Amino acid sequence: MTNAIDVRGLNKSFGDKHVVRDVSIQVGEGRITGFLGPNGAGKTTTLRLLCGLLTPDSGEGEVLGLDFRTQTAAIKRQTGYMTQSFSLYQDMTIEENLTFIARVYGLENRQQVVNQALDELGLQDRRGQLAGALSGGWKQRLALAAATLHGPRLLLLDEPTAGVDPQARREFWDEIHALADRGLTVLVSTHYMDEAERCHDIGYILNGRLIARGTAEEIIARSGLVTFNGEGPDVGKISHALEAQPGVLGASAFGTAVHVSGTDKSALEQAIAPWRKAPYEWEQVEPSLEDVFIQLMADQVDDRYAS
Amino acid sequence: MSRLSLSRIAAVMVKEFTQLRRDRITYAMILVMPLVQLLLFGYAINTDPRHLPAAVVSYDHSNIANDLVATLQNSSYVDVTHQPNSEAEMDRLMRRGSISLALTIPPDFTHHLLKGERAQILAEVDASDPVAAGGVSAAVAALPAQALKHDLLGPAARQGGKPPFEVVIHRLYNPEGINAYNIVPGLLAIILSMTLVMMTAMAVTREVERGTMESLLATPATPFEVMIGKLLPYIAVGIVQTTVVLTLARLLFAVPMAQTAAGWLALASGIVLFITCNLSLGYLISTLVRSQLQAMQVSVFYIMPSLFLSGFMFPFLGLPGWARAIGEVLPVTHFLRIIRGALLKGQVLADMSPDILALAAFLLVVATVTVARSRTTLD
Ligand SMILES: Nc1ncnc2c1ncn2[C@@H]1O[C@H](COP(=O)(O)OP(=O)(O)O)[C@@H](O)[C@H]1O
Ligand SMILES: [Mg+2]
User: Fold this and answer.
1) CATH topology of A3-219 equal to that of A221-306?
2) Which residues of chain A are within 8 Å of residue B377 when distances are taken between CB atoms?
3) A249-299, pLDDT tens digit by residue?
4) Please, are residues B136 and B49 in contact by the beta-carbon 8 Å criterion?
5) Domains, chain B
6) Would you tell me the crossing angle of helices B24-44 and B321-329 to the nearest 10 degrees?
7) Whose CA is nearest to atom 26 of ligand 1?
8) pTM, full prediction
9) Which residue minimizes the CA distance to atom 9 of ligand 1?
């Protein structure tokens, strides 16, 4: 398998703020890679570095087989980038926006390309509507159509589904899979855990460092995490109390259940002992990605606030 | 309805101050701009222009003629700055607007004067700006009464109160002293500057503010392509504005137009060049500021000296030297000479080459800086 993205030792600072630290990332062709991490972790900055919108302080490698530092113009022609905030022209119609993109990329048979995009979007009858008047979900779909209009080989999506309703999110992901099936490589940032599960593999970035990489199963297996699930009343209070216990790396409440994770099983059992009685029911469960990420964040917490 | 709350008013007030403090450029504009304007324009503006440059060609080399020139020199209205060798040379100075007064003393002046015959000198005054022309005309008209008081004995002095000689005044370019002839073409310069600089100043800033810059930069379009693509429509806007203003100038104010094809060609070249200068300047501003509001403020800041130091409001030659130096850097100054030259003085390209070159140099510098500053990345 060849890599669509293969960069090593990426660094970027804004002033004295080191935002991307020694990030090396490989993305196989045709793969959908989820780029996860909390706000401010450096996801957007990394995506911008990859598509030539920011100049890295250091780092080397190839994007689509081209030197990502020097051949940015050629990379741009074959890359679709969907920005975090809607960045089409709100005061132009849907069709005008698409036509503009088609022109900028110098597409031949422009009219046909735009028409086809409108058909696929199902926006043929609303082509004359201002892009700014569309609802959130439609805006995202239009932005995706605009980012793929020129037939890119690589798609960089920055939190494409933020603030979009679940139904629209599902359809959006169906679309991304359809694109990947056609051979597109997709790198998509998100902080929805459920979306991570729709990716072929995942990268987790925290405080500028890529600290986990692989498929969801690999990451979970590598974490060495033990997780207990407890059900019963007042789980919120219990999760707070548990967090302070030794051996507990993460505890969080989900509805009427609490998830407690740690790497030391006996320490964990000791921590939950006070509540291991009726009406509570405890069982060891397979850790979820979220449990793993909560642990990863806990590990890095000092570093994170240090800078 | 709830009662008026002082603490809520205070909350909003403190918030406004906090935001104002954060916006450095606005802050600077509010505090520095009035100071700069007060000093700049307070010293520069002079509604009674003095020390306007004059040229003298004297074919009479007598002491009397020399004294006449000395008297003129003593007047605070004109300074004799040029003593060209020929009238042709003096005409050229006059047409270019380098002098406000051209005085010719004929060879037989002293001869006529001493014999008590009608002695005359010719004073040509640039009347395209009626304000400047007023002072100059008064100064030369007073010459016969003041000059030669000590020189004349014999027949010339005995003319019984009658002035010893006569000044023939020719008011050139705008003989009737119609203000509109001078102001209306000048307004075109100001209108073009105000609208075009401001519009393009917002062109890039708007993309940054609305977040569309990021998408645009992710496309293969280069900054130079973006700049040209953004400027071209405004060149058309400028040409439409010019056409409208000139048509109205002709219909409503009867302002003279260029007379010949060469004149129109000169005018058209000057206009297109001037429009492009303004657009590039606006584009440069847009690469410097962070918001559309700041773009607007900087544009206004630029317009002020263009009003006062260019020769639009006050005669350029009547400004102090340092103010003229600033004025020479402004495109409006040169465009005013071009358009007044083309409309009032029948100038062709050869006459206005210094100003055309000045505009071209301005354009070159600004465009180079702009391209150098244009962003290919979001860094
Ligand atoms: N242009 C910039 N100038 C200064 N700091 C920036 C800039 N862009 C991003 N940052 C900072 O870099 C960090 C990472 O930002 P970003 O990459 O946007 O994170 P994410 O997309 O993961 O939320 C944040 O702390 C942010 O404030
Ligand atoms: Mg982001």
Assistant:
1) no
2) 52-55
3) 888 888 888 888 888 888 888 888 888 887 888 899 988 888 888 877 776
4) no
5) 52-172 (3.40.1710.10), 179-376 (no CATH)
6) 130
7) A40
8) 0.81
9) A45
